[in-house]
Specification:
Largest sheet of chain A: 7 strands, mixed
Distance between the termini of chain A: 60 Å
Strand order of the largest sheet of chain A: 11-12-9-19-16-17-18
Largest sheet of chain B: 5 strands, mixed
CATH topology of the largest domain in chain A: Aldehyde Oxidoreductase, domain 4
CATH class of the largest domain in chain B: Alpha Beta
Strand content of chain B: 5-15%
Strand order of the largest sheet of chain B: 2-1-5-3-4
CATH architecture of the largest domain in chain B: Roll
Oligomer: heterodimer
Radius of gyration of chain B: 15 Å
Distance between the termini of chain B: 41 Å
Shape of chain B: globular
Number of helices of chain A: 18
CATH superfamily of the largest domain in chain B: Beta-grasp domain
Order of helices and strands of chain B: EEHEEEHHHHH
CATH class of the largest domain in chain A: Alpha Beta
Helix content of chain A: 25-40%
Structural class of chain B: alpha+beta
Number of helices of chain B: 6
Radius of gyration of chain A: 27 Å
Strand content of chain A: 15-25%
Helix content of chain B: 40-55%
CATH architecture of the largest domain in chain A: 2-Layer Sandwich
Number of domains of chain B: 2
Largest interface: A-B, 63 and 58 residues
Shape of chain A: globular
CATH superfamily of the largest domain in chain A: Aldehyde oxidase/xanthine dehydrogenase, molybdopterin binding domain
Number of domains of chain A: 3
Number of strands of chain B: 5
Chain lengths: 717, 157
């Protein structure tokens, strides 16, 4: 056993250091079936002094256990994963565990992000120790409660599957019976965390807790929230980026049966109605004049020209050796321009939010990745203090970074404030695609050189593109650097003696945001494809060339070898097929993929994707597999399907006809292989995305001999 | 006043006749298992069964389905016992879950029409429903399981 010594003071100090009250609790008596709310756990926000019930878990007198999860379930399995960590240390009976979304409370602050927020593939790695300690504290208290009752030492007792057992006497007590006594005990001085070989749940392919409610329509997404007196709103937004509302005529909209009000809000013009169809028809009937002067000249070609003009003026991000000298001395050199387009998130559930603003408080019912941000958005608009804004997180019909944003929350709070009633704002799919915060488009100049022995001796990557941080957190990007733009490029793992990476921030009116795997999603494409170009220049096998330059990176090497072996790298393929390989580290997880492709009817057909992933210690292999499968499909859509383009200041794509997603009959067979690792857990939600596009592009390069330098992949371009 | 026969129950609705069935179900009957995804019959999240056939409820005016038997995800079974639901649970198909009502009803309609579909027929039917989480590989596996479960159930009966 790993002993974590915690005096009560330390316990609370630790809580403070991780940004939240590390508290567990036992809720008892007549109201024990009732879910704890933030109002019932005031101590969760107190800095010190007392052991406060009900942040992470509740043991009910009927033995059932409720685990509250601060991260948002958007498909990645976090409700199950976090619950497993707690339940394992608690030695709970898993069949009696249910998990639910926690309220917004600093007890649930994500220690990596510093807010209650789900993003950056951080839930498991951020909460790995905190929530296990919460579970272990519960176990310790239940052991003590049983020992006291029996008049024996706690060390003589064992916890297992929701019971405390006294082996010597054969006595047993269920957790439900012990809950009341446990709740009255002080926080233990120390808690024991299990050694890995003691894990009961961690590492097992435990079925997800939310699956049953997702096969019968019972799961409540933001879109499904029902409240007494609820109104529904749509918002007309200016189609031109940077344009503003000039005037509108609401007469015809108000004539639509069911439309109640038409109001200007910060996002545009809101039509508030009794139900969606009235709100939609009302919006269609609006006459709006937008002020787009000076904003309607923006287009994709102009944006690319802006990036191109900036690319040589970048700030140095990394500079090793003597790049210019090494390029001059190289036997062969290569220069290439790589571009990546804007991409939209396109969650299957279009953006929506429900707010109930009253004079004395505000309730948000929201599919959000950011509880703290949502709360603060409502505080800003309503003027209410934090404790008066309650956040009820629903299931998220996809997130991918899009639901970190506040635009849809803002709409709902403003509409409810104006209407004086609860309002659900629903974005149409067209709103969702035309008013996203897109993955940044970038323009990249790459130069490389190989020596007479075929060794890669020089590498330069100049990036130009817009900054996500400059839009969201201007202070964090005011020096011209943005780590989200350079991740996946700056940390190029290959041992190349002369290496330079630069970044030129070049912002445009097109808003950019976090898109599943962020900078790595495109930098992996650019770096891994340019690597294959250089390997070919040197006459080397792409896998061997990588392995030789990764001797200091055993985890990259491990996944590359595993993926290559499982994919049969180097073995013959049917005529017309080829393989490509790519590797990337992102969110402290290592992923390699091998794509097998052919060209059918003039288009790329991906037959098979073989994925190896090293995400450190495995919590739930089933979830890891699902995330790799899903991330590959996500990455393939971006590799193969339409980009987001701009003309006359507007996004040109509107719905799935002009912004198609990969469909089932285009989906390759996907094999996922997980490295058995004892390392600290890494992220899982995003790291499957980055290698997908370059693995496919490299296979196309191998097949056609022509490098793929822009996405989506277009043959013959 | 319009009448709808949904999941074996007759409902009366005061609603504009051009309202899509999707919004009649969601806003009128509070049956929220049927999802809005695109509004133009491209994504399949809104699929319901009308007289046993999969229909895109987002473009189907409610006036066109009065008197027809409508089945939504809530009515596929009372206890998740439909072979497709069972297979979906066993293969752990859903991630975010938003599109799964459409996936499951599309799959159920295929198996109703064709208890032993070929692989090509499965691909053809299931390509109609988009999933952004990328559950396609598991849908394929679950379809095979659902076919076997349905066959076994048929033998029992």
């Amino acid at each position: 056993m790993e002993t974590i010594k915690l005096s009560r003071r330390d316990f609370l100090k630790l809580s403070a250091a991780t940004g939240g009250g590390l508290v567990i609790g036992f809720m008892l008596g007549g109201c024990d079936r009732q879910t704890a709310t933030s109002a019932q756990m005031p101590g969760a926000s107190a800095a010190e002094g007392q052991f406060t019930p009900n942040a992470w878990l509740t043991v009910h007198s009927d033995d059932s256990i409720t685990i509250r999860v601060g991260s948002s379930e958007m498909g990645q399995g976090t409700l199950t994963g976090i619950a497993m960590l707690i339940a394992d240390e608690l030695d709970a009976d898993w069949s009696r565990v249910r998990a639910e979304h926690a309220p917004a409370d600093k007890a649930f602050t994500n220690p990596i992000i510093g807010r209650q927020h789900t993003g950056g593939s951080t839930a498991i790695r951020g909460f790995w120790n905190i929530v296990r300690q919460a579970g272990a504290t519960g176990r310790e208290l239940l052991l003590q409660a049983a020992a006291q009752q029996w008049g024996v030492e706690p060390s003589e007792c064992q916890a297992s599957k929701g019971e405390v057992i006294h082996q010597a006497s054969g006595r047993r007590l269920r957790y439900g019976v012990l809950a009341e006594a446990a709740a009255n005990l002080p926080v233990p001085d120390k808690v024991f965390l299990k050694e890995p070989d003691e894990f009961v749940l961690i590492g097992k392919p435990i079925p997800r807790l939310d699956t049953p409610d997702k096969v019968n329509g019972k799961a409540v997404f933001g879109m499904d929230v029902q409240l007494p007196g609820l109104l529904t709103a749509t918002v007309a937004r200016c189609p031109v980026k940077g344009g503003r509302l000039k005037r509108f005529d609401a007469k015809q909209a108000l004539a639509v049966p069911g439309v109640q009000r038409v109001e200007a809000i910060s996002g545009g013009v809101a039509v508030i109605a009794e139900h969606f169809w009235a709100a939609k028809k009302g919006r269609d009937a609006l006459h709006i004049e937008w002020d787009t002067a000076g904003k309607d000249g923006l287009d994709s070609a102009g944006i690319e020209a802006q990036f191109k003009a900036a690319v040589d003026q970048g700030l140095l991000e990394r500079d090793e050796g003597d790049l210019d000298k090494s390029l001059a001395a190289a036997t062969k050199t290569l220069q290439a321009v790589y571009t990546a387009p804007y991409q939209a998130h396109v969650c299957m559930e279009p953006m929506n939010a429900t707010a109930d603003v009253r004079a004395d408080g505000c309730d948000l019912y929201v599919p959000t990745q950011g509880q703290t941000s949502s709360q603060e958005t409502a505080m800003r608009i309503t003027g209410l203090p934090r404790e008066k804004v309650r956040v009820h997180t629903t299931f998220l019909g996809g997130g991918f970074g899009r639901r970190s944003e506040q635009d849809f929350i803002t709409d709902a709070v403003e509409c409810s404030k104006l209407a004086g009633r609860p309002v659900k704002v629903i974005w149409t799919r067209e709103d969702d695609i035309m008013h996203d915060q897109y993955r940044p488009a970038t323009y990249n100049l790459l130069r490389g050189g190989v020596d007479a022995k075929g060794r890669l001796v020089a590498w330069e990557h100049r990036i130009a593109g817009p900054s996500i941080l400059a839009r969201l957190y201007p202070g964090a990007a005011k020096d011209g650097h943005d780590r989200t733009s350079t991740e996946g490029a700056k940390n190029l793992p290959y041992h190349i003696a002369n290496l330079r990476v630069s970044y030129a921030m070049s912002n445009t009116p097109v808003p950019v945001g976090f898109w599943r795997s962020v900078g790595s999603s495109q930098n992996a494409f650019i770096t891994e494809c340019f690597f294959d170009e250089l390997a070919k220049l040197a006459g080397r096998d792409p896998l061997q060339a990588r392995l030789e330059l990764l001797s200091e990176h055993p985890r990259h090497t491990g996944v590359l070898k595993l993926a290559a072996e499982k994919a049969g790298w180097g073995t013959p393929l049917p005529k017309g097929r080829a393989r490509g390989i790519a590797v990337a580290e992102s969110f402290t997880t290592y992923t390699a993929q091998v794509a097998e492709v052919s060209i059918e009817k003039g288009a790329v057909r991906v037959h098979r994707m073989t994925c190896a992933v090293d995400c450190g210690r495995v919590v739930n292999p089933n979830s890891i597999r699902a995330q790799m499968e899903g991330a590959i499909v996500y990455g393939l859509t971006a590799a193969l399907k339409g980009p987001i383009t701009i003309a006359a200041g507007q996004i040109q794509q509107r719905n799935f006809d002009d912004y198609p997603l990969l469909r089932l009959d285009e989906c390759p067979d996907i094999d996922v292989h997980i490295v058995n690792s004892q390392q600290y857990p890494g992220g899982v939600g995003e790291p499957g995305v980055p290698p997908a596009a370059p693995a496919v592009a490299n296979a196309v390069f191998a097949l056609t001999g022509r490098p793929v330098r822009s996405l989506p992949i277009r043959l013959g371009s | 006043m319009l009448y709808l026969d949904v999941n074996g129950q007759r409902h009366e609705l005061a609603i504009e006749p051009d309202t899509p069935l999707l919004w009649a179900l969601r806003d009128g009957l509070k049956l929220t298992g049927t999802k809005y995804g695109c509004g133009i019959a491209l994504c399949g999240s809104c699929v319901v069964l009308v007289d046993g056939k999969p229909v895109r409820s987002c473009v189907m005016p409610v006036s066109a389905v009065t008197g027809k038997k409508i089945t939504t995800i809530e009515g596929l079974s009372s206890d998740r016992s439909h072979p497709v639901q069972q297979a979906w649970i066993e293969e752990e198909v859903p991630q975010c879950g938003y599109c799964q009502s459409g996936q499951i009803l599309t799959a159920a309609a295929l198996l109703e029409r064709k208890p032993r579909p070929t692989e090509a027929e499965i691909e053809q039917a299931m390509r109609e429903v988009l999933c952004r989480c990328g559950t396609y590989p598991r849908i394929r596996t679950a379809m095979k399981k659902a076919i076997a479960l349905a066959a076994a159930k048929g033998k029992e009966a």
